[in-house]
Amino acid sequence: MAEPTTTLSAAAVAAAISGVTSALLGVDYYSLIWGMVGALLALYQAAPMGKVRSVVLVSISTLAGAACGTGAVDVMGSASRPLLIVASLVAGFGAQRIVAALLQTTLNRIEKLGGQ
């Protein structure tokens, strides 16, 4: 069983990270979580890749999915949390494919210009 101090510290860090992301990115905590779930689900269908590339891909897809999900709910003029969750999940899933294609295009252009 974890010590109470350790558990309290972990909860405080999680709350601080959640507050910072909400303040800086303007997205809800639920949209970040479900955007990440969508990105992870899409990662299972992606071609095999390295650890660093998959972490970058999921991170960017999570942020894009959360932003798109929040934007979609705002455009609809709704404050429904289930709608936010579904929109973020779908956007995170779709964003993973788009981000993967953009990342591959960027890497191809860097190699074409003589990069390593």
Binned strand content? under 5%
Largest sheet: none
Oligomeric status: single chain
Structural class determined from secondary elements: mainly alpha
Q: How many DSSP-defined strands?
A: 0
The end-to-end span amounts to 47 Å
Task: Please tell me what the overall shape is.
Answer: globular
Residue ranges: pLDDT <50 for 5 or more in a row? none
Number of helices: 4
**What is the H/E string?**
HHHH
Helix content: over 70%
Mean pLDDT across residues? 77
Rounded to an integer in angstroms, the radius of gyration calculated over CA atoms is 17 Å
What does this structure look like?
With 116 residues, the chain is mainly alpha-helical. The protein has helices at residues 4-25, 29-43, 51-76, 81-112. Helix 3 crosses helix 4 (81-112). The protein is 82% helix and 0% strand.
Features of the shown structure:
116 residues, mainly alpha
